[in-house]
Design a protein that fits this description.
24-stranded antiparallel beta barrel, 33 strands
């Protein structure tokens, strides 16, 4: 096999592993415009493009790699101090790193070589241009059917711009220096703003420069502690990675590259120090918010759409200032940190009127402070964080990871986020995807390597909400369990059997004997079972088949509902330059509650996890062609046809007919 073929095969393998990790984490979540999935995908793609040198990386750098925790990072440092790793598979000689963990981290690490020859030469241009890789990416996406928003005139509340969604990114990244500019025009938005785009994000970052670990000017993200005080930028949650994801590994200060408009802070941030380090940050930017009164708004929107005249009238109509810092100390026994931020909105933030919004933040000023830890005692890794918001609300989380023998790993986590804990920029582990608030729960995850070919995973999560949440105006609770068995009988075959059951309270309104409307809480279940088989028949052909069944047993006033999904996909790779992914999916569900999910191949840096309901079929094809070492193209076409309905979606996105089709095209230039 030629070196070119090996490199192409390695790149494809890396992308496949990244997609697999994302799919494991977003198993049953439909990713929308305001989700953090894109940010997590960008982080993993960038990490894979600049893998961590396991022979020289610090604990902080190792903790960026999926699969590493503090215990494994310290074990690696002890191992390499006696004997440097000569090949990447030597990682499995490090105590605690088995085949499953190695597979998870292998796409993001390298044994590397000496890369510190310019360490003291900050005035040497070669230092700043080390591994510098310029890249330009442009993407076009569009729904081909005409949607309601494009039929209406502007005066009737219709979309002002075209149906095209256009994205471009200019990026120059190296070991010590990084520049990024991301721009996007959403479908329905008119051309305008920065260089014609509705949204522009840019930053200049310095990385790994001695004691100045990070310095970012422009748009940045902050990932600190266990996420109770500050975490914007995507994180793993509950999914098939049952062990190793509940405890967060902070990423600190990072330049922001996503097109998710509400996710970035804008200003300056830095981290300076050694074993004791100081982080400071300041941000000032405008957001889009619904107007309540002359000097009051709702909390800023996360969607970032500016398509209709009313949306454009609110475009970036309120300002926001953020400041704060963090102190962190690295000790042989662990890592300890303290984080604080204060924030001020230009307008008074008015919470919603729903019962679920009763304990949401309201006002102009807010602050949150917290303490976090991560340490090792014996063979057990402990982690946790406690935080307090300005109104006196408390949130805390504590967990552990350990091995039970040589083949079994265990994760435990308890969280208690008070109903009045208001961490508006936090993202702690939990059932709810919003900020950590109004939730108490206990999670247990187990992974057992039965033999070299079989791995069993299991998690159970019990949770409760003291105050109302969206959809239920009373205290409620739930229980979530997932179990899977992954069997690889040969190197070319992979099989998966997965079972998941989630039980949660729901509320219904009924009329009593006296003719009055009353509400009652009932127990609702959703059960799903999946069987999947993937087979690499030849170097150029891989096929994968999945069958999934969903049951929603009768409860309350609802009848039993079911959903079925069956798909067949093929990956055809006739040579090192061309790759084609094709999938045909059949689905049949009684309702949206019995919906089925499928994670799809897509354009580079695009996440697609579709929720399918009703009865129909979906087909898509993705073509990836590497024209040269510097030029690469992607093209995706998808079509969904429904059997029993003539109206798709609602509101301005409504399509009259039984078919929706989408097209996307992308080009990447590397210099």
């Amino acid at each position: 096999m030629t070196p070119v073929h090996l490199i192409a095969q390695q790149q494809d393998s890396t992308r496949t592993k990244i997609r697999s990790q994302i799919e494991r984490s977003f198993n049953e979540v439909e990713l929308g415009e305001d989700d953090n999935g894109e940010q997590l995908l960008l982080f993993l793609e960038e990490l894979a493009a600049n893998p961590v040198n396991v022979n020289s990386a610090s604990i902080d750098r190792l903790l960026q790699v999926p699969g590493f925790n503090l215990k494994l990072a310290q074990a690696l440092i002890r191992y390499r101090s006696a004997q440097p790793l000569e090949q990447i598979t030597d990682l499995m000689k490090v105590p605690g790193i088995g085949r499953v963990t190695f597979e998870r981290m292998s796409a993001f690490v390298t044994i590397g070589g000496s890369t510190e020859r310019f360490r003291a030469l900050y005035l040497n241009p070669d230092y700043w241009t080390q591994n510098l890789k310029p890249e330009y990416l442009i993407r076009y996406q569009q729904v081909l059917e005409e949607q309601e928003g494009y039929k209406r005139r502007e005066s009737e509340g219709g979309y002002i711009g075209s149906a095209a969604k256009v994205y471009q990114r200019i990026r120059v990244a190296g070991k010590h220096l990084q520049f990024n500019m991301t721009q996007e025009k959403d479908a329905g938005e008119p051309w305008g703003g920065g260089l014609g785009f509705d949204y522009t994000s840019a930053h200049l970052a310095l990385k790994d420069n001695g004691w100045l670990k990070d310095f970012v000017i422009g748009d940045f993200a902050l990932n600190m502690g266990q996420g109770l005080v500050m975490w914007n930028g995507g994180a793993f949650g509950k999914g098939r990675e049952v062990v190793g994801t509940v405890g967060k590994n902070e990423r600190g200060v990072r330049g922001y590259s996503s097109a998710q408009e509400s996710g970035a802070f804008r200003g300056v941030a830095f981290t300076y120090g050694g074993d004791v380090e100081l982080t400071g940050f300041y941000s000032r930017r405008n957001f889009t918010a619904s107007i309540v009164g002359e000097d009051s708004t709702r909390f800023p929107s996360s969607a970032g759409f500016h398509r209709t005249q009313s949306e454009r009238d609110r475009r970036y109509n309120t300002g926001h200032t953020l400041w704060g810092g963090r102190v962190r100390a690295v000790h042989p026994y662990g890592i300890f940190g303290a984080t604080y931020y204060g924030t001020r909105f230009d307008d008074y933030i008015v919470k919603g009127s729903a019962l679920s919004a009763r304990y949401y933040f309201e006002g102009k000023n807010h602050s949150v402070a917290g303490l976090d830890y991560k340490g090792i005692f014996g063979q057990v890794l402990f982690f946790g964080e406690v935080a307090r918001s300005e109104n006196g609300g408390i949130g805390w989380v504590s967990g552990l990871e350990t091995s039970l023998g040589s083949a079994t790993d265990l994760s435990l986590l308890y969280r208690d986020y008070a109903k009045d804990f208001q961490s508006i920029y936090g993202a702690g582990f939990g059932e709810q995807s919003s900020a950590p608030q109004n939730e108490e729960g206990f999670y247990i995850g187990l992974r057992h390597v039965l033999n070299r070919k079989t791995v069993i995973g299991l998690y159970a999560d019990q949770y409760q909400f003291e105050a109302p949440i969206s959809g239920i105006d009373q205290p409620s609770q739930g229980f979530d369990i997932l179990a899977d068995i992954e069997w690889n009988p040969t190197q070319s075959m992979n099989t998966l059997v997965l079972f998941r059951m989630e039980t949660k309270d729901k509320e219904e309104i009924f009329t009593n004997n006296e003719g009055r409307d009353e509400s009652r809480v009932y127990n609702s279940k959703r059960i799903s079972a999946r069987i999947q088989l993937a087979y690499q028949q030849t170097r150029s052909l891989r096929w994968r088949t999945r069958f999934e069944q969903v049951w929603v047993p009768a409860a309350g006033g609802e009848e039993q509902q079911r959903g079925v999904l069956l798909y067949q996909d093929l990956r055809i790779q006739p040579n090192t330059k061309l790759k084609i992914d094709v999938r045909v999916t059949l689905f049949d569900t009684d309702s949206f509650d019995a919906r089925v999910y499928q994670f799809e191949n897509d354009l580079l840096y695009v996440l697609s996890n579709k929720a399918l309901s009703d009865t129909g079929k979906r087909m898509y094809a993705v073509v990836n062609y590497e024209w040269s070492e510097n030029v690469e193209f992607w093209l995706k076409y998808s079509i969904t046809q429904f059997q029993n309905k003539q109206v798709i979606s609602t509101g301005l996105n409504q399509i009259i007919g039984d078919t929706r089709s989408d097209i996307g095209a992308q080009m990447r230039l590397k210099f």
